[in-house]
Amino acid sequence: MEAIRCHSSAERKLWFLYSMNVIDWICTVVLLRNRGFIEANPIAAAFIGDMSAGFLIKCAIPLALIGIILKLCADSSVNLPRGVDRWLSFGIALYLFIITDHIVNFVILFLGVGT
């Protein structure tokens, strides 16, 4: 199985995915505080209204997991399977769609487009 180095594109993709995850959480909280917006993800709907739980699940835990992954990669000669890089790319594409949706919702909310 072909592998990729931990500290190559996979590391950059991990940090980019983490950043988009945090941006998604912040945008969602802002939009939910305004009328007419709901959380579309039923799993996230259970915790997104609680700032402490939201921070823990969307920021702290993912950050700790990234730290563990990068520490494991630095401490050994382990390389990530190529499939991991593909899944990271898929996650980034998904978050780009979600953040684009947030941008559209902010335009609707703050510019009154469509009302």
List the helices and strands and how they pair.
Layout: E1 3-4, H1 6-32, H2 42-45, H3 51-75, E2 80-81, H4 82-111
Antiparallel strand pairs: 1-2
Helix pairs in contact: 1-3, 1-4
> Which descriptor suits the 3D outline?
elongated
Helix/strand-derived class? mainly alpha
Q: What spatial order of strands do you see in the largest sheet?
A: 1-2
Elements, N to C (H/E):
EHHHEH
Q: For the terminal residues, how far apart are their CA atoms?
A: 54 Å
Number of helices: 4
Q: Helical content, roughly?
A: over 70%
Percent in strands = under 5%
Average pLDDT taken over every residue: 84
Give the low-confidence spans.
Answer: none
Question: Number of domains in the coordinates?
Answer: 1
Write down how many β-strands occur, each being a DSSP E stretch of 2 or more residues. 2
Radius of gyration: 17 Å
Could you name the key traits of this structure?
115 residues, two-stranded antiparallel sheet, single chain, mainly alpha
